[in-house]
Amino acid sequence: MPFHSEHAPDSGEALQLAGKQKEALQAYASALRENPDDPRILSNCGGLLCEMGDFSSAMQLLRKATDLAPDFADAWSNFGNTLLQSQMFNESVWAYTRCLELNSSHKHALSNIGVALDGMGLHSQALTFHDIAIRLDALNPETRTNRAISLLAAGNYPEGFAEYEWRWKTRTTAWHGMETPLWDGKPFTGKTVLIHTEGGFGDVLQFARFLPQVKALGGQLILRIRPELRDLLARMQIVDAVLVEEEPIPAHDFQIPILSLPLALKTTLDTLPFPEGYLHASEEKICRWQKILHDDTGKLRVGLVWAGAPHKEIREAEIADRRRSMSLACLAPLATCSANVSFYSLQLGEPASQLAASPDGLNIIDHTASLHSFDDTAALISCLDLVIAVDTSTAHLAAALGKTVWLLSRYDQCWRWLSHRTDTPWYASLKIYQQTRPLDWSAPVNAIQQDLLHHSAQQIDLERRSY
């Protein structure tokens, strides 16, 4: 959001620049009481409300700002941001276009119109705007990271992952604090490389596939991750030590965040390793689950996950989680499959409370009280036939185990699933069911319902023939 060059210390602009959003909002509200028709205050306050995730209130202020000052480019840019966050992609492109008609060098609008086009899967068009924005401001980390996501979503991994290194300079990515040299992919015989956590659980699970390639290039390999992943990833028997983040960091020669491995290894779409799976559950825990589930042998066993983790500490991640998650009620059509299917909850966290009001006919068995780590969840998944999940860590876990996964993906889906595909080079066993309209789960859920009816009927028929 643009600001004037000089602000009083207690102005909304100054407070917002200082990261004091609540105080800034109060200052804007006070200023609007005195000057309710000031387009600049309306625009800046609307931009702040958009950043805070209150899109409805932001929309009202920004509509008023653009009505009062139709030649105010910044207001159109902020309006575009709010429309974009509301998943109104065509409308956001229109607002950004209005901004650019007034100011063709408006770098925020140029970059964000690219983001809107990326959200619609129009990556080659998006890159045109990302490139122009970078020519105007080559050192802007948000602009560079937007371009990186566009390249990755288009499948250009060499250039995309190189550009993605700009993420460490954005305001939304916390620096990992490692000062040892970054490993560049070269052999490290006699040396030690530390690979450390970045992003959420799903990111680590997805990128753990690269560990064997790193180990093959040299000496000692240390993996530093969150404790919930330790037992599962240690079973890969690739690294020399698996540490949790609370433990002291041992001496090492090089370090690398786990999402930087594809760049170091010069990965392309054609060289992604182990799409068939690379994780293994505990045989002992699998046997335990088989005993628990032994009575349920006549039906297809299907795990369900309908929501991700909100990551409330990161505003942008929380907003994205609203788009990737659904309510359990959205899965009501699956109740028609219950004659041949037993559903098992794999849902953890607050959304699991929705089981108390499951849709009629959708009877879901819940053993999640026994899941204390990803190793526990991996063993339960190993006893299931299929996992249906939104784009969250459990989907990565199941696919990395080689289990069939049907992924419910939002309209502006994550870059890792590419665009206009129902399959993925990352996981051979994963099928994508993407929203055909923003924020509307009906089409992918109905498609899954039909496929599940067919799949479960086939399974039961095969079992009957085997007797």
Poorly predicted runs = 1-6
The amount of helix comes to 40-55%
The secondary-structure element order is HHHHHHHHHHEHHEHEEHHEHEEHEHEEH
What would the CATH topology of the largest domain be? Answer: Rossmann fold
The tally of strands reads 10
CATH superfamily (homologous) name of the largest domain: Glycogen Phosphorylase B
Number of domains: 3
Q: Examine the secondary-structure arrangement and name the CATH architecture of the largest domain.
A: 3-Layer(aba) Sandwich
Count of runs of 4 or more consecutive helical residues: 19
What does this molecule look like?
This protein is an alpha/beta fold and 467 residues long. Helices cover 44% and strands 12% of the residues. The protein contains 19 helices and 10 strands. α3 runs antiparallel to α4 (55-68) and α8 (123-136) packs antiparallel against α9. The relative contact order is 0.08.
